[in-house]
Inverse folding.
């Protein structure tokens, strides 16, 4: 057959896409092997029945045809009001584009600000798709490395050294995979650096309802940042609507106008009945968001108690999101070796830190996505396994 494009064949760079443990776990499940999956950020509670009912009634009522590409006006208004209430930044529907999930929003945002060959920065550790997204728009990915000992927060001197000739910086707070919630001081450092370099900041805020310590601050709220920031939001984590594929980009009106043109030529919008369900979910208010987030708050406390009873694994402070990061280097293994060994020995699947970049090497990410008793049992087994490895030398 004719050759495929260089862009599509190099999305993963020179290595794997980081999902090898997940794929093996799913293959084991397909073969009938019971596996406790603590890999992906998939809620165990599912989408609230009231949201599904709203989706069903909308579809039954006929909202199954083409929906307006920027998003239905009522939903754009609701997102704008939500973002303004959270950030304090005046926000109108013209600042909002509805997208098929946060992932599509990340692609579109970088397509808007990066020309082919532009250097696009992202913070390491990172969500596994980030480098591929940057390559897919023709940008050159460049990691800004962080340290476990510093809570995986980007440091000002490292940022300043990385931004030369860069066009954009992608951050994620609350952070997947580390659980870090960027404090105001870190965000001020980021704002100063990107402003001095006249860069775009793309802020992935899909975990903004899952904050256990501190407070979520959108960098768009900092002085002078609204004009150079594109915020990615989503219903996936806040309302357990992962499969519904609905999110948004919030940014300057001129940028959103151009992004609407991109959506017209790519996704052609989001189905209306899904938008109606999202609108219903947002209008339900904060109690539903708190209900969706509560299992992860509870399981973080479980994880803290279990990890405090042993000395081999070090838990990175989990300030937000639905994961805990564990430093497994005292076992003598790196993250990938530990994850594969745990899966083979105990049929428990976690994600290797190496899936999320060099900074997370020697760690594993544990998703808090099983009901409490099963999560507790799996985490205890994981700790016992790590202790046995450490004793064996």
């Amino acid at each position: 057959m004719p050759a495929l494009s260089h862009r599509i064949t190099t999305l993963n760079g020179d290595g794997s896409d980081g999902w090898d443990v997940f794929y093996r776990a799913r293959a084991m499940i397909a073969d009938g092997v019971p596996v406790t999956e603590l890999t992906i950020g998939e809620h165990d509670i599912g989408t609230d029945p009231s949201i599904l009912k709203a989706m069903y009634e909308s579809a039954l009522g006929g909202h199954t045809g083409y929906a307006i590409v920027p998003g239905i006006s009522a939903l754009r208004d609701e997102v704008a009001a939500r973002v303004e209430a959270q950030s304090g930044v005046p926000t109108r529907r013209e600042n909002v584009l509805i997208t098929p999930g946060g992932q599509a929003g990340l692609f579109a945002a970088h397509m808007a600000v990066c020309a082919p060959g532009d250097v696009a920065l992202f913070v390491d550790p990172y969500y596994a798709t980030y480098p591929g997204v940057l390559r897919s728009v023709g940008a050159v990915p460049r990691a800004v490395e962080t340290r476990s000992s510093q809570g995986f927060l980007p440091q000002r001197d490292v940022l300043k050294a990385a931004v030369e000739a860069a066009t954009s910086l992608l951050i994620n707070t609350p952070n997947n995979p580390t659980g870090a919630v960027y404090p105001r001081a870190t965000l001020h450092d980021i704002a100063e650096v990107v402003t001095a370099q006249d860069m775009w900041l793309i802020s992935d805020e899909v975990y903004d309802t899952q904050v256990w310590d501190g407070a979520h601050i959108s960098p768009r709220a900092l002085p002078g940042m609204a004009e150079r920031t594109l915020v990615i939001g989503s219903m996936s984590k806040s309302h357990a609507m992962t499969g519904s594929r609905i999110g948004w980009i919030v940014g300057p009106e001129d940028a959103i106008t151009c992004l609407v043109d991109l959506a017209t030529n790519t996704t052609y919008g989001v189905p209306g009945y899904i938008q109606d369900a999202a609108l219903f979910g947002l209008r339900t208010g904060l109690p539903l968001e708190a209900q969706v987030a509560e299992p992860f708050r509870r399981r973080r406390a479980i994880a803290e108690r279990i990890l405090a009873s042993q000395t081999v694994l070090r838990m990175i402070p989990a300030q937000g999101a639905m994961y805990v990061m564990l430093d497994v280097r005292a076992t003598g293994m790196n993250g990938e070796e530990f994850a594969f060994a745990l899966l083979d020995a105990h049929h428990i699947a976690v994600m290797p830190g190496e899936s999320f970049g060099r900074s997370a090497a020697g760690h594993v990410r544990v998703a808090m996505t099983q009901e409490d008793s099963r999560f507790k049992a799996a985490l205890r087994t994981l700790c016992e396994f790590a202790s046995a490895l450490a004793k064996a030398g």
